[in-house]
Write a structure and sequence with these properties.
It is found in: Membrane. The chain is mainly α. It folds into two domains: about 1-50, no CATH class; about 75-144, no CATH class. The chain contains six helices and three strands. A hairpin with a 4-residue loop joins strand 2 (about 60-65) and strand 3.
């Protein structure tokens, strides 16, 4: 739901009207999304012929009441897949991405020589992180 000023004003007035009733119940912040949806439905607030409903679920599950019942969507998995596909599409241009783990997975799938060119620094940095404490410890022992 993108928020523009005209709908924000209407939404704030609706929440202010419902808030005294919601304070009687525990978890009112979870129920308030459902109540606002019931009081002020607009076509822009629905999700492909379904109604987004806030329910007390684990944070990585989003519950949507659709035409055929409850659909559980793993939001983090779909976001990760989308980022993975973006990395897969940009490897020919950039060689690697910001997150080494995601870039490594996309490089393994893409598996071209130029995709591997910029990945050596990821492994060298990991080896340096192991070598640095050993070197510092050696220097301290040598000075004593």
């Amino acid at each position: 739901m993108d928020l523009n000023p005209s709908r924000c004003d209407h939404l704030i007035k609706t929440v202010q009207a419902v808030r005294p009733e919601l304070r009687k119940y525990p978890h009112s912040e979870i129920i308030s999304g459902v109540e606002v949806k019931k009081l002020s439905p607009t076509p822009l607030m629905s999700l492909h012929r379904g109604v987004p409903i806030a329910t007390p679920r684990p944070p990585n599950l989003v519950t949507v009441w659709g035409l055929r019942g409850m659909i559980f969507a793993l939001v983090y998995c779909t976001a990760g897949i989308a980022v993975f596909l973006v990395h897969l599409a940009t490897i020919p241009i950039t060689g690697t991405g910001i997150n080494p783990a995601r870039s490594l997975g996309a490089t393994i799938v893409y598996n071209r020589n130029h995709a591997w060119d910029d990945h050596y620094h990821v492994f060298i940095n990991a080896i340096d992180l192991i070598k640095a404490p050993v070197f510092v410890t050696y220097c301290k022992l040598r000075d004593n």
